[in-house]
Design brief:
By secondary structure, this protein is an all-alpha fold. It is built from eight helices and no strands. Helices cover 85% and strands 0% of the residues.
Amino acid sequence: MNMTAIFINALAVVCLFFALIKDRTKTKQALKMAVISFFRISPTVLAIILIIGLFSGFVPESQISKVVGENAGFRGVLTVAFLGAILHIPSLVSFPLAASLLEKGASITSIAVFITTLTMIGMVTLPLEIRILGKKLALLRNGLSFIIAIIIGLIMGAIL
């Protein structure tokens, strides 16, 4: 375990300790809610981990590098941008997926674009967004977010 993970876990334990001191009842209630939430999202997380494992096992590194690696160019960036815009993956799970893609040869630019489009663009939620914001504004927001996600990815690739 790296130092960041140790620090975050230690901080969580310390905060839990202080919460118990302040109000035992509310802390126990919050812990019960956390356990319920954990079991509620576990099937989704396990399914996505399974998909990542199958993906890693069946798709060779050379193919990943070819499609979204440094040599893929702007076509690779657009590929992951569209995938990120269409897929509905929780951010919590997208980071391990991004790490495994990075290890398999994907470029930093592609990974940054993928994560950014996952979080900024919602094709699944677009119908709801259209009802709330109107068609023109919802499409404008998603279109601008798509362009900005690509720009962010290109900047991240240049910096890192």
